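User: Could you check the structure of this?
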Amino acid sequence: MAKVTRAKNAVAFLKTEFSRVGQTSANEILKLAKIDPKKKPLDLDHEDIMRLHKAMKMVKLVSPPTNCLSQLGEGLIEKGLRKEIDAEYFVAISRPPTVYRGNPFQIECGLAFGGNIDPNKQARLYRFANKVPLMYHQGDCALTQAVEEVDWRRYGLQQPQGSLPAGPLAILIHFISVWVPFTSEGKQAIASYPDITKEVKLALQDAGRKLKIYISRRRRS
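Assistant: Sure, the predicted structure tokens are below.
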């Protein structure tokens, strides 16, 4: 980056080539790295770059912008579930964008309940990353882990310990990010990060509360 930038000095290099780095934070980074702010990026040697990289991790920056994410939206998720699954109740949730390890990401989920879904089997789980379905390695995926960690009994469903809920339920989870942390080159499972797991659980809990209201009304009826 230092070799190809058009910035004339180190301060301008940080401000123009990195997201959310302003004058104050750029000067703070360079001070920690012991680099002259007027030094040309092309003149940075290997030791300078190593110190600069280390200093970047020590300075607190504003979270990156999240308007680069391409979501499906609650309307499209519900419409897709209705098209593919013969169920009696549908709900979709889109969480606000957030950040993990400096990367913006967003979680969306949808539930389909009842209808012709087999009530004697585990819930169906559909995983997506940036609108692409993840077909394999379900057990190794952070999305699966998050589903298993939600207490579905609170929402009127059965759930064996440490497993997916049981009953006439289909679950769709969509992970959106500029950098998807896949566990391998096969790109079929998402690595477990606390921020990601937390957001998935929050989305499922939001959807679960709406499902609980429907189930309670149905039982009373």
